[in-house]
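Here is a complete protein record:
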Amino acid sequence: MTGRVVTLTANPSLDRTLALPGPVDRGGVVRLGASSTEPGGKGVNVSRALAAAGADVVSVLPAADDDPIVTELRHRGLPLATVPVTAPVRTNYTLAEPDGTTTKLNEPGVALDDATRAALEATLHEHATGARWVVLSGSLPPGTPVDWYATLVRSLRGTGARIAVDTSEAPLLALLAAGPDAAPDLAKPNAEELAQLAGVAEAEVLADPDAALAAVRTLHERGVAEVLLTLGADGAVLSTAEGVWSAQPPRITVRSTVGAGDCSLAGYLLADLDGQPPAERLRAAVAYGAASASLPGSAVPTPAQVDGPAVRVTAGIAGASTAAHPVPAAGRDAR
């Protein structure tokens, strides 16, 4: 495994998971089960999963040196590059029901002034130079220009790093509307985000494979080289210049979906760091996402908890107007 990954989490959080005994009882008194708190934010989750696999990763985030999130991440041995802010990092709450249903309650986060954003950008550039990947991940803090990710992608081109972006809503729309020079090398939308970008209904993307492929092509037309479309329990689709693949996850007992998409991105990057071809990068992404969903709260899996061979990878998308055939797991006999 070679190459460094740098993640930016502009809106980090402490993720508090509250275990409910049953479905949410609005207006009632709920006796909680075991609860947990993890350092979070999408980029932080990616970093934690990469670090658990032994990857070289640096997390860039705004936080005071004595903030609990910094203390927790340092305790876990995660390399950090922080830019100080005066307010504490936000807390996000997850209500976890026994059947795996999760309800998120997210605080808005700490507003960043121009000087803090400039310091974050400078810190990001410092660590991105010579890195294999830079990951821009998660929501933007209050008051941040909606096109900030587009600005960062343009400014990072000279570092030599490839750029992955995982965000949603207005920042995602602004990123893809900014032109090919702001397009990331890798985008990781889910079905809702892809539908929004393509201007179609989410149900259409989920029900019609040809519609999903057409929506993915709109991202390529805007300059995105690789699209990793995550579909939760339905697996994921990867589209690159080399082709299109889909993957089905192994059967698991879902405990929490919080951070599963972030772990999917981490799995993809780990396989890329190992020099794996697209089908194996997709396999790793789906395997990591499934492993994450089988764990409580926002825990990230270790490599020992990831079952790559259990993931079924197929060229194309079943039901689409392209041929499909199974792709063997890495190391298996392909005959």
The radius of gyration is 19 Å.
